């Protein structure tokens, strides 16, 4: 006598089929990990007495493990917030392919709205405590009074400070047993009086005699700080007067575009980033510095919105990690798209960690590459696209 697989086996089969498209692929990168599985299993166990909720709020899902898992376990309305456009497209693609009948049950929302009156929230823990606090503040402010938040991650990326961040927003925080080097924090009952959030943050910076102000959320790389690599690039920014427009790829908090526009009064800036928080922060920085008429910013997967051979100048400070995984693949993807968008003779100004030694890759993927500046940590280069 044979028996059919149970719900756990069905869920595992689903998770094992998830893909990473349109994100970069690599043998050590997966669409679902042990933390995703533990979040789903812990929530299912804790909710066994009341049943799996029909409405589920999800924050930080990377490729659809949490969203697809919630749908497979019985939710009929899955509300998702993800800061990354790449993640959103991956979630949509996976649900459409693996759960086509549930495609219309999936919706995306801003962070401030995703958990409105939700009783259950699943969250993939972010890297930073500031991001977690920004998320927890937004969720606790609108969730149902009896809400429970299941926040999971890999133990090596977790700290006791995460418990404290959640405890400032929720009346109770419990910790699951560890499994496969992962753990889940269970935060219950949002506090009626919430402490003030530190974000968005504002800071003014001074480079080469020019002052500019950044205004950014915690989810933006660097928030309102000026990271050392970007500062080195700005300190050695060449004269851009020959260019009508600058494409600021992976714009982050908008610091490169803002400084370039302030120091070149005729320059138009076209900024893009996969992060919704980064785009909002860049637009806020443009407004704070009186540049809204010369700066635009849009959420994009690299530069997919721009046609080939359409730009004469691109700047790039590429990330070197995807989530918690360090990889050069995302930088190479951005460099390759910059090569596509640059017109022959166009220039890519790039800053990167010196130990990554991207110069040879820039020369191979773009064209002749010269070093403009280097310190003990970062290197700034200029690459010219060959005809």
UniProtKB/TrEMBL annotation:
Top-level taxon in the UniProt lineage: Bacteria
Domain RlmG N-terminal stretches: 17-187
Key words, A-Z: Methyltransferase, Transferase
All residue ranges annotated as the Methyltransferase small domain in the record: 212-381
GO molecular function, one term: S-adenosylmethionine-dependent methyltransferase activity
GO aspect biological process, one term: methylation
One Pfam entry name: RLMG_N
Name of this chain's protein: Methyltransferase
Species name: Glutamicibacter halophytocola
Upper lineage: Bacteria, Bacillati, Actinomycetota, Actinomycetes, Micrococcales
């Amino acid at each position: 006598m044979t028996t059919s697989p149970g719900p756990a086996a069905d869920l595992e089969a689903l998770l094992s089929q998830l893909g990473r498209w349109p994100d970069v692929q690599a043998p050590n990168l997966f669409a679902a990990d042990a933390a995703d599985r533990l979040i789903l299993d812990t929530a299912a166990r804790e909710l066994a007495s009341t049943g799996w909720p029909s409405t589920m709020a999800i924050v930080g899902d990377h490729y659809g493990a949490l969203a697809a898992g919630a749908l497979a376990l019985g939710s009929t309305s899955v509300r998702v917030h993800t800061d990354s456009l790449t993640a959103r497209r991956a979630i949509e693609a996976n649900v459409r392919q693996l759960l086509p009948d549930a495609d219309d049950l999936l919706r995306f929302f801003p962070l401030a709205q995703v958990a409105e009156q939700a009783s259950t929230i699943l969250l993939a823990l972010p890297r930073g405590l500031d991001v977690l606090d920004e998320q927890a503040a937004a969720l606790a402010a609108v969730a149902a009074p009896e809400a429970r938040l299941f926040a999971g991650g890999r133990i090596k990326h977790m700290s006791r400070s995460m418990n404290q961040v959640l405890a400032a927003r929720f009346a109770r925080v419990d910790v699951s047993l560890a499994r496969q080097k992962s753990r889940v924090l269970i935060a219950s009952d949002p506090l009626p009086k919430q402490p003030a959030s530190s974000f968005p943050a504002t800071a003014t910076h001074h480079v080469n005699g020019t002052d500019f102000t950044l205004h950014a959320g915690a989810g933006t790389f660097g928030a309102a700080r000026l990271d050392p690599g970007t500062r080195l690039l700005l300190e050695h920014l060449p004269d851009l007067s020959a260019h009508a427009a600058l494409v600021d790829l992976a714009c982050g908090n908008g610091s490169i575009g803002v400084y370039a526009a302030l120091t070149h009064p005729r320059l138009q800036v076209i900024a893009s980033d996969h992060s919704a928080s980064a785009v909002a922060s860049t637009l806020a920085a443009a407004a704070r510095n009186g540049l809204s008429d010369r700066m635009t910013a849009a959420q994009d997967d690299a530069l997919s919105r721009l046609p080939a051979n359409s730009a004469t100048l691109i700047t790039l400070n590429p990330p070197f990690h995807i989530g918690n995984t360090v990889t050069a693949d995302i930088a190479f993807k951005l460099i390759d798209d910059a090569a596509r968008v640059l017109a022959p003779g166009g220039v890519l100004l790039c800053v990167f960690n010196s130990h990554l030694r991207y110069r040879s890759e820039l020369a191979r993927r773009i064209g002749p590459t010269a070093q403009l500046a280097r310190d003990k940590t970062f290197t700034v280069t200029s690459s010219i696209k060959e005809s």
